[in-house]
Write a structure and sequence with these properties.
mainly alpha, 65% helix
Protein backbone atom coordinates (compact mmCIF):
# COMPACT_ATOMS: atom_id res chain seq x y z
CA UNK A 1 0.00 0.00 0.00
CA UNK A 2 1.09 3.53 -0.71
CA UNK A 3 -0.19 6.72 0.82
CA UNK A 4 -0.89 10.11 -0.63
CA UNK A 5 -0.81 12.90 1.91
CA UNK A 6 -2.42 16.17 0.87
CA UNK A 7 -0.14 19.13 1.72
CA UNK A 8 -1.44 22.17 3.57
CA UNK A 9 -1.88 25.44 1.61
CA UNK A 10 1.39 26.61 0.10
CA UNK A 11 0.72 30.22 1.05
CA UNK A 12 1.48 29.33 4.66
CA UNK A 13 4.85 27.65 4.11
CA UNK A 14 7.72 29.08 6.07
CA UNK A 15 10.78 28.12 4.01
CA UNK A 16 12.31 25.79 1.50
CA UNK A 17 12.92 23.14 4.12
CA UNK A 18 9.21 22.81 4.77
CA UNK A 19 8.84 21.17 1.34
CA UNK A 20 10.98 18.28 2.51
CA UNK A 21 8.73 17.72 5.47
CA UNK A 22 5.69 17.24 3.21
CA UNK A 23 3.34 19.22 5.40
CA UNK A 24 2.87 22.88 6.16
CA UNK A 25 5.16 24.53 8.65
CA UNK A 26 3.29 27.82 8.83
CA UNK A 27 1.67 26.94 12.13
CA UNK A 28 3.02 29.55 14.52
CA UNK A 29 0.07 31.37 16.04
CA UNK A 30 0.32 35.15 15.79
CA UNK A 31 -0.83 36.96 18.88
CA UNK A 32 -2.52 39.64 16.81
CA UNK A 33 -3.04 40.81 13.28
CA UNK A 34 0.03 42.98 13.57
CA UNK A 35 2.21 39.89 13.87
CA UNK A 36 1.26 38.48 10.47
CA UNK A 37 3.84 40.61 8.76
CA UNK A 38 6.46 39.32 11.20
CA UNK A 39 5.81 35.64 10.51
CA UNK A 40 8.87 35.23 8.31
CA UNK A 41 11.65 32.97 9.59
CA UNK A 42 14.21 34.50 11.86
CA UNK A 43 17.42 35.61 10.22
CA UNK A 44 19.45 33.04 12.09
CA UNK A 45 21.39 30.00 11.04
CA UNK A 46 18.42 27.75 11.63
CA UNK A 47 15.87 29.98 9.81
CA UNK A 48 13.13 28.82 12.17
CA UNK A 49 9.78 30.56 12.40
CA UNK A 50 9.57 33.26 15.03
CA UNK A 51 7.97 32.18 18.30
CA UNK A 52 4.57 33.76 18.91
CA UNK A 53 4.17 36.20 21.73
CA UNK A 54 2.53 34.59 24.75
CA UNK A 55 -1.07 35.45 25.44
CA UNK A 56 -1.48 36.44 29.09
CA UNK A 57 -4.69 35.34 30.69
CA UNK A 58 -7.02 38.33 31.16
CA UNK A 59 -7.73 39.48 34.67
CA UNK A 60 -11.23 38.29 35.41
CA UNK A 61 -13.06 37.83 38.71
CA UNK A 62 -12.62 34.25 39.94
CA UNK A 63 -15.70 32.15 39.44
CA UNK A 64 -17.58 30.40 42.22
CA UNK A 65 -19.57 27.20 42.10
CA UNK A 66 -22.51 26.05 44.21
CA UNK A 67 -20.25 23.46 45.83
CA UNK A 68 -17.55 25.94 46.89
CA UNK A 69 -20.15 28.43 48.08
CA UNK A 70 -21.74 25.75 50.23
CA UNK A 71 -18.38 24.80 51.77
CA UNK A 72 -17.49 28.41 52.54
CA UNK A 73 -20.94 29.07 54.00
CA UNK A 74 -20.71 26.07 56.32
CA UNK A 75 -17.40 27.31 57.68
CA UNK A 76 -18.70 30.88 58.09
CA UNK A 77 -21.75 29.69 60.00
CA UNK A 78 -19.58 27.78 62.42
CA UNK A 79 -17.02 30.55 62.96
CA UNK A 80 -19.78 33.05 63.81
CA UNK A 81 -22.07 30.68 65.71
CA UNK A 82 -23.08 30.63 69.40
CA UNK A 83 -20.90 27.70 70.53
CA UNK A 84 -17.40 28.77 71.65
CA UNK A 85 -15.75 25.41 70.98
CA UNK A 86 -17.23 25.29 67.48
CA UNK A 87 -15.99 28.82 66.77
CA UNK A 88 -12.45 27.93 67.85
CA UNK A 89 -12.41 24.78 65.76
CA UNK A 90 -13.72 26.63 62.70
CA UNK A 91 -11.12 29.37 63.19
CA UNK A 92 -8.40 26.72 62.95
CA UNK A 93 -9.96 25.29 59.81
CA UNK A 94 -9.70 28.69 58.10
CA UNK A 95 -6.00 27.94 57.60
CA UNK A 96 -6.87 25.01 55.34
CA UNK A 97 -8.84 26.94 52.71
CA UNK A 98 -8.00 25.69 49.18
CA UNK A 99 -7.37 27.95 46.14
CA UNK A 100 -10.65 26.81 44.59
CA UNK A 101 -12.50 28.89 47.19
CA UNK A 102 -11.30 32.29 45.96
CA UNK A 103 -14.36 32.83 43.77
CA UNK A 104 -16.76 31.89 46.57
CA UNK A 105 -14.89 34.14 49.01
CA UNK A 106 -15.19 37.06 46.59
CA UNK A 107 -18.92 36.41 46.27
CA UNK A 108 -19.44 36.44 50.02
CA UNK A 109 -17.37 39.60 50.44
CA UNK A 110 -19.58 41.28 47.82
CA UNK A 111 -22.70 40.09 49.65
CA UNK A 112 -21.47 41.50 52.96
CA UNK A 113 -20.45 44.79 51.33
CA UNK A 114 -23.96 45.21 50.00
CA UNK A 115 -25.85 44.37 53.21
CA UNK A 116 -23.66 44.96 56.26
CA UNK A 117 -24.13 47.87 58.66
CA UNK A 118 -20.63 49.33 58.72
CA UNK A 119 -21.36 51.68 61.61
CA UNK A 120 -22.58 48.84 63.83
CA UNK A 121 -19.63 46.69 62.76
CA UNK A 122 -17.18 49.47 63.69
CA UNK A 123 -18.78 49.94 67.10
CA UNK A 124 -18.73 46.22 67.81
CA UNK A 125 -15.09 45.98 66.67
CA UNK A 126 -14.06 48.75 69.07
CA UNK A 127 -15.91 47.07 71.92
CA UNK A 128 -14.26 43.72 71.27
CA UNK A 129 -10.88 45.37 70.84
CA UNK A 130 -11.08 47.13 74.21
CA UNK A 131 -12.05 43.89 75.94
CA UNK A 132 -9.26 41.97 74.29
CA UNK A 133 -6.64 44.62 75.06
CA UNK A 134 -7.67 44.76 78.72
CA UNK A 135 -7.48 40.99 78.93
CA UNK A 136 -4.09 40.84 77.21
CA UNK A 137 -2.64 43.54 79.46
CA UNK A 138 -3.86 41.73 82.54
CA UNK A 139 -2.28 38.49 81.40
CA UNK A 140 0.96 40.22 80.47
CA UNK A 141 1.12 41.98 83.84
CA UNK A 142 0.57 38.72 85.69
CA UNK A 143 3.34 37.09 83.70
CA UNK A 144 5.66 40.08 83.95
CA UNK A 145 5.72 40.52 80.20
CA UNK A 146 5.06 43.37 77.80
CA UNK A 147 1.50 43.51 76.49
CA UNK A 148 1.04 43.19 72.68
CA UNK A 149 0.23 46.37 70.81
CA UNK A 150 -2.93 44.95 69.23
CA UNK A 151 -4.89 41.71 69.41
CA UNK A 152 -5.34 39.37 66.44
CA UNK A 153 -8.80 40.14 65.11
CA UNK A 154 -10.02 36.62 64.44
CA UNK A 155 -8.96 35.35 67.85
CA UNK A 156 -10.47 38.45 69.44
CA UNK A 157 -13.84 37.95 67.74
CA UNK A 158 -13.93 34.24 68.56
CA UNK A 159 -13.25 34.88 72.23
CA UNK A 160 -15.42 37.99 72.69
CA UNK A 161 -18.36 36.91 70.61
CA UNK A 162 -21.81 38.49 70.40
CA UNK A 163 -23.44 35.99 68.03
CA UNK A 164 -26.93 37.30 68.70
CA UNK A 165 -26.07 40.59 66.95
CA UNK A 166 -26.12 40.78 63.13
CA UNK A 167 -23.17 43.18 63.15
CA UNK A 168 -21.04 40.60 64.96
CA UNK A 169 -22.01 37.85 62.51
CA UNK A 170 -21.13 40.07 59.57
CA UNK A 171 -17.82 41.21 61.06
CA UNK A 172 -16.73 37.73 62.15
CA UNK A 173 -17.50 36.34 58.71
CA UNK A 174 -15.71 39.16 56.93
CA UNK A 175 -12.57 38.68 59.01
CA UNK A 176 -12.81 34.92 58.51
CA UNK A 177 -12.92 35.45 54.74
CA UNK A 178 -9.70 37.46 54.88
CA UNK A 179 -8.02 34.66 56.86
CA UNK A 180 -9.03 32.18 54.19
CA UNK A 181 -7.41 34.38 51.55
CA UNK A 182 -4.17 34.53 53.52
CA UNK A 183 -4.20 30.74 53.84
CA UNK A 184 -4.71 30.35 50.07
CA UNK A 185 -1.60 32.51 49.55
CA UNK A 186 -1.82 33.23 45.81
CA UNK A 187 -1.79 36.44 43.81
CA UNK A 188 -5.52 35.96 43.17
CA UNK A 189 -6.11 35.78 46.93
CA UNK A 190 -3.98 38.90 47.47
CA UNK A 191 -6.06 40.79 44.89
CA UNK A 192 -9.20 39.90 46.80
CA UNK A 193 -7.62 41.11 50.03
CA UNK A 194 -6.97 44.47 48.38
CA UNK A 195 -10.59 44.43 47.24
CA UNK A 196 -11.72 43.98 50.85
CA UNK A 197 -10.07 47.31 51.64
CA UNK A 198 -11.67 48.85 48.55
CA UNK A 199 -15.14 47.67 49.57
CA UNK A 200 -14.96 48.37 53.33
CA UNK A 201 -12.58 51.33 53.48
CA UNK A 202 -11.08 52.35 56.82
CA UNK A 203 -13.00 49.65 58.69
CA UNK A 204 -10.70 46.95 57.26
CA UNK A 205 -7.66 48.94 56.14
CA UNK A 206 -5.39 48.14 59.08
CA UNK A 207 -6.25 44.46 59.15
CA UNK A 208 -5.83 44.11 55.38
CA UNK A 209 -2.36 45.67 55.67
CA UNK A 210 -1.43 43.17 58.37
CA UNK A 211 -2.68 40.23 56.32
CA UNK A 212 -0.90 41.37 53.14
CA UNK A 213 2.29 41.67 55.16
CA UNK A 214 1.82 38.08 56.34
CA UNK A 215 1.61 36.95 52.73
CA UNK A 216 4.99 38.56 52.08
CA UNK A 217 6.28 38.48 48.51
CA UNK A 218 3.14 36.68 47.30
CA UNK A 219 1.23 39.96 47.76
CA UNK A 220 3.69 42.20 45.87
CA UNK A 221 2.04 41.74 42.48
CA UNK A 222 -1.40 42.65 43.84
CA UNK A 223 -0.02 45.83 45.39
CA UNK A 224 1.77 46.74 42.15
CA UNK A 225 -1.48 46.36 40.23
CA UNK A 226 -3.32 48.36 42.89
CA UNK A 227 -1.05 51.34 42.15
CA UNK A 228 -3.09 51.79 38.96
CA UNK A 229 -6.43 51.29 40.69
CA UNK A 230 -9.33 53.34 39.36
CA UNK A 231 -9.60 54.92 42.82
CA UNK A 232 -6.64 57.24 43.39
CA UNK A 233 -6.92 56.74 47.13
CA UNK A 234 -6.24 53.02 46.71
CA UNK A 235 -3.32 53.75 44.39
CA UNK A 236 -1.69 56.02 46.97
CA UNK A 237 -2.31 53.45 49.69
CA UNK A 238 -0.64 50.72 47.59
CA UNK A 239 2.35 53.02 46.97
CA UNK A 240 2.75 53.50 50.72
CA UNK A 241 2.64 49.75 51.36
CA UNK A 242 5.30 49.07 48.75
CA UNK A 243 7.48 51.90 50.04
CA UNK A 244 7.22 50.55 53.59
CA UNK A 245 8.57 47.23 52.34
CA UNK A 246 11.38 48.83 50.34
CA UNK A 247 9.76 47.75 47.07
CA UNK A 248 8.93 51.10 45.52
CA UNK A 249 11.23 50.73 42.47
CA UNK A 250 11.21 47.95 39.83
CA UNK A 251 14.69 46.66 40.69
CA UNK A 252 13.69 45.99 44.28
CA UNK A 253 10.42 44.23 43.48
CA UNK A 254 12.24 41.42 41.63
CA UNK A 255 14.54 40.69 44.56
CA UNK A 256 12.44 37.75 45.73
CA UNK A 257 13.35 34.10 46.31
CA UNK A 258 9.99 32.60 45.41
CA UNK A 259 9.86 31.98 41.62
CA UNK A 260 6.06 32.05 41.62
CA UNK A 261 6.03 35.43 43.34
CA UNK A 262 8.64 36.69 40.87
CA UNK A 263 6.55 35.51 37.93
CA UNK A 264 3.52 37.33 39.35
CA UNK A 265 5.57 40.52 39.79
CA UNK A 266 6.80 40.43 36.17
CA UNK A 267 3.25 40.09 34.87
CA UNK A 268 2.10 42.86 37.20
CA UNK A 269 4.67 45.30 35.80
CA UNK A 270 3.37 44.49 32.36
CA UNK A 271 -0.22 45.11 33.39
CA UNK A 272 0.53 48.54 34.84
CA UNK A 273 2.45 49.37 31.60
CA UNK A 274 5.24 51.22 33.39
CA UNK A 275 8.07 52.03 30.91
CA UNK A 276 10.53 52.30 33.80
CA UNK A 277 10.04 48.59 34.50
CA UNK A 278 10.47 47.44 30.89
CA UNK A 279 14.21 46.77 31.12
CA UNK A 280 13.77 44.75 34.29
CA UNK A 281 10.99 42.64 32.79
CA UNK A 282 12.93 42.01 29.55
CA UNK A 283 16.02 40.94 31.50
CA UNK A 284 14.14 37.87 32.75
CA UNK A 285 13.02 36.80 29.26
CA UNK A 286 16.01 34.46 29.02
CA UNK A 287 15.74 32.96 32.51
CA UNK A 288 16.56 29.28 32.88
CA UNK A 289 13.38 28.88 34.91
CA UNK A 290 10.54 28.30 32.48
CA UNK A 291 7.97 29.77 34.88
CA UNK A 292 9.89 33.03 35.21
CA UNK A 293 10.85 33.16 31.52
CA UNK A 294 7.27 32.78 30.31
CA UNK A 295 6.01 35.32 32.84
CA UNK A 296 8.59 37.86 31.67
CA UNK A 297 7.54 37.38 28.06
CA UNK A 298 3.91 37.77 29.06
CA UNK A 299 4.93 40.97 30.83
CA UNK A 300 6.54 42.24 27.62
CA UNK A 301 3.37 41.43 25.68
CA UNK A 302 1.33 43.31 28.29
CA UNK A 303 3.67 46.31 28.18
CA UNK A 304 3.15 46.60 24.44
CA UNK A 305 4.23 49.88 22.92
CA UNK A 306 5.29 51.18 26.35
CA UNK A 307 8.32 48.88 26.22
CA UNK A 308 9.45 49.51 22.64
CA UNK A 309 12.55 51.55 23.51
CA UNK A 310 13.77 49.01 26.04
CA UNK A 311 13.10 46.24 23.49
CA UNK A 312 15.22 48.01 20.85
CA UNK A 313 18.09 48.39 23.31
CA UNK A 314 17.83 44.76 24.42
CA UNK A 315 17.78 43.57 20.82
CA UNK A 316 20.91 45.59 19.99
CA UNK A 317 22.71 44.30 23.09
CA UNK A 318 21.82 40.70 22.23
CA UNK A 319 22.21 40.60 18.44
CA UNK A 320 24.84 43.29 18.00
CA UNK A 321 22.88 45.46 15.58
CA UNK A 322 19.96 47.85 15.74
CA UNK A 323 16.52 46.59 14.92
CA UNK A 324 15.16 47.99 11.63
CA UNK A 325 13.18 51.13 12.22
CA UNK A 326 10.07 49.73 10.51
CA UNK A 327 9.80 46.84 12.95
CA UNK A 328 6.95 47.10 15.43
CA UNK A 329 7.42 46.33 19.09
CA UNK A 330 5.85 42.92 18.45
CA UNK A 331 8.34 42.05 15.74
CA UNK A 332 11.27 43.19 17.88
CA UNK A 333 10.02 41.14 20.83
CA UNK A 334 9.62 38.01 18.74
CA UNK A 335 13.03 38.43 17.10
CA UNK A 336 14.61 39.01 20.49
CA UNK A 337 12.95 35.98 22.06
CA UNK A 338 14.00 33.81 19.10
CA UNK A 339 17.62 34.89 19.53
CA UNK A 340 17.50 34.35 23.29
CA UNK A 341 16.10 30.87 22.75
CA UNK A 342 18.82 30.09 20.21
CA UNK A 343 21.50 31.11 22.71
CA UNK A 344 19.87 29.29 25.62
CA UNK A 345 19.23 26.13 23.60
CA UNK A 346 22.49 26.05 21.64
CA UNK A 347 22.85 22.25 21.82
CA UNK A 348 19.23 21.41 20.90
CA UNK A 349 19.43 23.90 18.05
CA UNK A 350 22.60 22.26 16.76
CA UNK A 351 20.89 18.88 16.85
CA UNK A 352 17.86 20.36 15.15
CA UNK A 353 20.02 21.65 12.32
CA UNK A 354 21.46 18.14 12.01
CA UNK A 355 17.90 16.80 11.84
CA UNK A 356 17.01 19.26 9.08
CA UNK A 357 20.10 18.24 7.10
CA UNK A 358 19.14 14.59 7.50
CA UNK A 359 15.59 15.35 6.36
CA UNK A 360 16.91 17.06 3.24
CA UNK A 361 19.05 13.98 2.55
CA UNK A 362 16.06 11.72 3.31
CA UNK A 363 18.10 9.94 5.96
CA UNK A 364 15.08 9.17 8.08
CA UNK A 365 16.95 7.17 10.73
CA UNK A 366 19.43 9.97 11.38
CA UNK A 367 16.65 12.55 11.32
CA UNK A 368 14.64 10.65 13.90
CA UNK A 369 17.65 10.20 16.20
CA UNK A 370 18.50 13.91 15.98
CA UNK A 371 14.92 15.00 16.67
CA UNK A 372 14.66 12.64 19.63
CA UNK A 373 17.88 14.20 20.96
CA UNK A 374 16.37 17.68 20.53
CA UNK A 375 13.42 16.78 22.73
CA UNK A 376 15.63 14.96 25.23
CA UNK A 377 17.94 17.98 25.69
CA UNK A 378 15.26 20.65 25.40
CA UNK A 379 11.71 19.44 26.06
CA UNK A 380 10.61 23.09 25.89
CA UNK A 381 12.48 23.67 22.62
CA UNK A 382 9.60 25.72 21.30
CA UNK A 383 9.47 24.95 17.57
CA UNK A 384 6.57 22.60 18.04
CA UNK A 385 5.05 23.11 14.59
CA UNK A 386 8.32 22.32 12.82
CA UNK A 387 9.00 19.30 15.02
CA UNK A 388 5.48 17.97 14.51
CA UNK A 389 5.79 18.28 10.74
CA UNK A 390 9.15 16.51 10.77
CA UNK A 391 7.89 13.63 12.86
CA UNK A 392 4.89 13.27 10.54
CA UNK A 393 7.20 12.91 7.55
CA UNK A 394 9.30 10.33 9.42
CA UNK A 395 6.18 8.34 10.30
CA UNK A 396 5.18 8.26 6.62
CA UNK A 397 8.68 7.15 5.60
CA UNK A 398 8.79 4.34 8.19
CA UNK A 399 5.19 3.18 7.65
CA UNK A 400 6.08 -0.03 5.79
CA UNK A 401 9.68 -0.66 6.81
CA UNK A 402 9.45 -0.06 10.58
CA UNK A 403 5.84 0.21 11.84
CA UNK A 404 6.94 0.53 15.49
CA UNK A 405 9.16 3.52 14.71
CA UNK A 406 6.39 4.99 12.53
CA UNK A 407 3.87 4.64 15.35
CA UNK A 408 6.23 6.35 17.82
CA UNK A 409 6.87 9.22 15.37
CA UNK A 410 3.17 9.68 14.64
CA UNK A 411 2.40 9.81 18.35
CA UNK A 412 5.06 12.46 18.92
CA UNK A 413 3.77 14.50 15.99
CA UNK A 414 0.24 14.37 17.37
CA UNK A 415 1.37 15.55 20.81
CA UNK A 416 3.57 18.35 19.44
CA UNK A 417 1.21 19.71 16.80
CA UNK A 418 -0.52 22.97 17.67
CA UNK A 419 -2.32 23.31 14.34
CA UNK A 420 -5.51 21.27 14.18
CA UNK A 421 -4.91 20.18 10.58
CA UNK A 422 -1.48 18.75 11.29
CA UNK A 423 -2.66 17.16 14.53
CA UNK A 424 -5.48 15.48 12.63
CA UNK A 425 -3.05 14.16 9.99
CA UNK A 426 -0.76 12.74 12.66
CA UNK A 427 -3.66 11.18 14.55
CA UNK A 428 -5.02 9.68 11.32
CA UNK A 429 -1.62 8.18 10.57
CA UNK A 430 -1.36 6.75 14.08
CA UNK A 431 -4.80 5.13 13.84
CA UNK A 432 -3.93 3.69 10.44
CA UNK A 433 -0.78 2.11 11.85
CA UNK A 434 -2.73 0.62 14.74
CA UNK A 435 -5.39 -0.76 12.38
CA UNK A 436 -2.69 -2.20 10.11
CA UNK A 437 -1.09 -4.02 13.05
CA UNK A 438 -4.44 -5.47 14.07
CA UNK A 439 -5.23 -6.56 10.51
CA UNK A 440 -1.89 -8.36 10.30
CA UNK A 441 -3.10 -10.44 13.25
CA UNK A 442 -6.43 -11.23 11.61
CA UNK A 443 -8.49 -8.51 13.29
CA UNK A 444 -10.20 -5.95 11.05
CA UNK A 445 -11.07 -2.94 13.23
CA UNK A 446 -13.39 -0.82 11.10
CA UNK A 447 -13.75 1.81 13.82
CA UNK A 448 -10.07 2.72 13.75
CA UNK A 449 -10.04 2.98 9.97
CA UNK A 450 -13.19 5.09 9.78
CA UNK A 451 -11.90 7.41 12.46
CA UNK A 452 -8.62 7.77 10.56
CA UNK A 453 -10.52 8.76 7.42
CA UNK A 454 -12.69 11.22 9.34
CA UNK A 455 -9.57 12.95 10.62
CA UNK A 456 -7.84 12.99 7.24
CA UNK A 457 -9.98 12.17 4.18
CA UNK A 458 -6.79 12.29 2.05
CA UNK A 459 -5.28 9.34 3.93
CA UNK A 460 -5.06 6.82 1.06
CA UNK A 461 -3.46 4.21 3.29
CA UNK A 462 -6.52 4.15 5.52
CA UNK A 463 -8.83 4.00 2.50
CA UNK A 464 -6.91 1.08 0.99
CA UNK A 465 -6.95 -0.66 4.36
CA UNK A 466 -10.72 -0.26 4.60
CA UNK A 467 -11.22 -1.68 1.09
CA UNK A 468 -8.96 -4.61 1.87
CA UNK A 469 -10.81 -5.43 5.05
CA UNK A 470 -14.19 -5.15 3.32
CA UNK A 471 -13.04 -7.64 0.63
CA UNK A 472 -11.93 -10.06 3.35
CA UNK A 473 -8.30 -9.99 2.20
CA UNK A 474 -6.89 -10.79 5.60
CA UNK A 475 -3.44 -12.12 6.22
CA UNK A 476 -4.04 -15.79 6.89
CA UNK A 477 -0.50 -16.34 8.11
CA UNK A 478 -1.30 -15.70 11.78
CA UNK A 479 -4.46 -17.82 11.48
CA UNK A 480 -2.49 -20.73 10.02
CA UNK A 481 0.13 -20.36 12.72
CA UNK A 482 -2.55 -20.49 15.39
CA UNK A 483 -4.02 -23.57 13.74
CA UNK A 484 -0.73 -25.45 13.65
CA UNK A 485 0.04 -24.37 17.21
CA UNK A 486 -3.32 -25.68 18.39
CA UNK A 487 -2.78 -28.95 16.48
CA UNK A 488 0.64 -29.38 18.02
CA UNK A 489 -0.74 -28.81 21.48
CA UNK A 490 -3.51 -31.31 20.86
CA UNK A 491 -1.00 -33.90 19.58
CA UNK A 492 1.21 -33.43 22.61
CA UNK A 493 -1.82 -33.82 24.85
CA UNK A 494 -2.86 -37.06 23.12
CA UNK A 495 0.66 -38.46 23.37
CA UNK A 496 0.81 -37.55 27.03
CA UNK A 497 -2.51 -39.24 27.74
CA UNK A 498 -1.37 -42.35 25.85
CA UNK A 499 1.92 -42.40 27.70
CA UNK A 500 0.17 -42.19 31.03
CA UNK A 501 -2.30 -44.94 30.07
CA UNK A 502 0.50 -47.21 28.84
CA UNK A 503 2.42 -46.66 32.03
CA UNK A 504 -0.58 -47.69 34.09
CA UNK A 505 -1.02 -50.90 32.07
CA UNK A 506 2.62 -51.83 32.49
CA UNK A 507 2.45 -51.12 36.17
CA UNK A 508 -0.60 -53.35 36.51
CA UNK A 509 1.07 -56.19 34.58
CA UNK A 510 4.29 -56.06 36.61
CA UNK A 511 2.58 -55.81 39.96
CA UNK A 512 2.72 -59.24 41.81
CA UNK A 513 -0.54 -60.96 42.52
CA UNK A 514 -1.69 -60.69 46.10
CA UNK A 515 -0.99 -63.79 48.30
CA UNK A 516 -3.87 -66.22 48.66
CA UNK A 517 -5.62 -66.28 51.98
CA UNK A 518 -4.75 -69.37 54.02
CA UNK A 519 -7.51 -71.90 54.18
CA UNK A 520 -9.66 -71.55 57.15
CA UNK A 521 -8.74 -74.28 59.57
CA UNK A 522 -11.34 -75.75 61.88
CA UNK A 523 -10.80 -77.90 64.95
CA UNK A 524 -12.75 -80.67 63.24
CA UNK A 525 -14.67 -81.27 66.21
Amino acid sequence: MTATWAPAPRAARLGARAAVLGVSLALARPSSAGQDAAAAPAASATRLPLPPLPRPAPLAPPESTPATLAEVDRLLERVSGPDAATREEAARELREAPPAWVGAIRKRVDDLAGSADRGAMRALLERARKKALAQLRARAKAAGEKAPAAPEWMAMLVEHAEPEKPAYVALARLVALTRMLVAIDTVEAARELVEVHVRFGELMRVDVQVQLEKMGDRSLAALLEARRHRAEKIGRWADRQLDARGKSVPGETVRVEDPRALADVLRAWGRVRDPLAARIVISFASSERAQVREAAREGVALLGEAGVHALRDAYEDTVGRRAPREWTWERIARELFAELDRMRLAEPYARFEAAQAALEARDWVAARQALDAVLAHGPNFGQRATLAAAYTSIAVAFFDSDPAAALDAAGRAERLAEDETLRAKAASLRLTLEATALLANGVADATLVERALELDPANERARALRDRAQRGELDRGPERRRYWAASAIALVAVLAIGFVALGRRRGAAERPAPAADPPSGGDGG
